[in-house]
Every structure is written in structure tokens, then in C-alpha cells.
Design goal:
Length: 106
């Protein structure tokens, strides 16, 4: 049923609840369950994963397109490898979930 609902969802409308599941399975080791970059594997990484809970990270350059590109293609020279197996809908869901870590605008 969940799969059916995801399949019917428009590709661009990211679903943060679905993104949370993908994040828990694929991203927490480095990015941490709280999105603060303090996952158990982060200690070994240089550069460190960013802190998605920090307002300072959410500059205007962090567009959905830019974040999506980093997820799909990774960040060369860092521990962030690309997740090219994800569908555009999966990536949109992840972006929606990552945005939920951002602090409310002041
Ligand atoms: C093996 C560790 C690791 C895993 C797993 C991982 N990341 Fe990352 N991620 C990193 C590191 C390290 C960076 C910092 C890269 C840099 O400084 O350019 C990063 C950076 C990012 C960025 C910021 C890129 C930018 O444009 O600055 C996003 C978005 C991101 N990761 C999303 C994800 C998502 C979503 C997942 C799961 C699907 C994931 N990452 C899984 C290590 C990881």
C-alpha cells in the first residue's frame, strides 16, 4: 500500500515522511538521526557531514536542485558518495525531509 501511494505521488512534491524512512536507512550513519552531522561514522570523515539543523547551512544556494544533485552525484573527494539508485521521487522526499531539519526562520 505504501509503495502504491508513493508510486502515485507526483515526482516533485517531496514527502518528508517518506524521506524520513529513506534517511533512516541510508543517511544516519554519517549525518546522524538528528541531522546534526554527528552520526557514528562521522568521526572518521574529513570533511565532516554538515549540520542540517544549523540556520547557517541553509544559505540561498541550497536550492532543491543543488541538494538533489549532491544526493544523486555525491561530493567528489568527500565521504558523501552518490545515491544514483534513488528515483527522482525518492530524492524529492529526501530533500523535503532534510528541509524539516532547518530551524524556523527568525
Ligand atoms: C558515508 C557517510 C555519508 C553517508 C552515508 C551520507 N552522507 Fe551526505 N555527506 C557526507 C559528508 C562527509 C558530507 C560533506 C561533503 C562536503 O563537505 O562537501 C555530506 C554532505 C551531504 C549534503 C550536502 C551537500 C552540499 O551540497 O553541500 C547533503 C544534502 C547530503 N550529504 C545528503 C545525504 C543524504 C540524503 C544521504 C542518504 C541518502 C547521505 N547524505 C548519506 C557523508 C555521508
Amino acid at each position: 500500500m505504501l509503495v502504491l501511494l508513493l508510486a502515485l505521488a507526483p515526482a516533485q512534491a517531496g514527502d518528508a515522511a517518506a524521506g524520513k524512512l529513506l534517511y533512516a536507512a541510508n543517511c544516519t550513519a554519517c549525518h546522524g538521526p538528528a541531522g546534526d552531522g554527528k552520526g557514528p561514522a562521522a568521526i572518521a570523515l574529513k570533511p565532516k557531514p554538515p549540520d542540517f539543523t544549523s540556520a547557517a547551512w541553509w544559505t540561498p544556494e541550497r536550492t532543491d536542485a543543488a541538494i538533489s544533485a549532491s544526493i544523486v552525484s555525491g561530493r567528489p573527494g568527500t565521504g558523501m558518495s552518490g545515491f544514483s539508485q534513488f528515483s527522482p521521487g525518492d530524492v524529492a522526499d529526501l530533500v523535503a525531509y532534510l528541509r524539516s531539519f532547518a530551524p524556523p526562520a527568525p
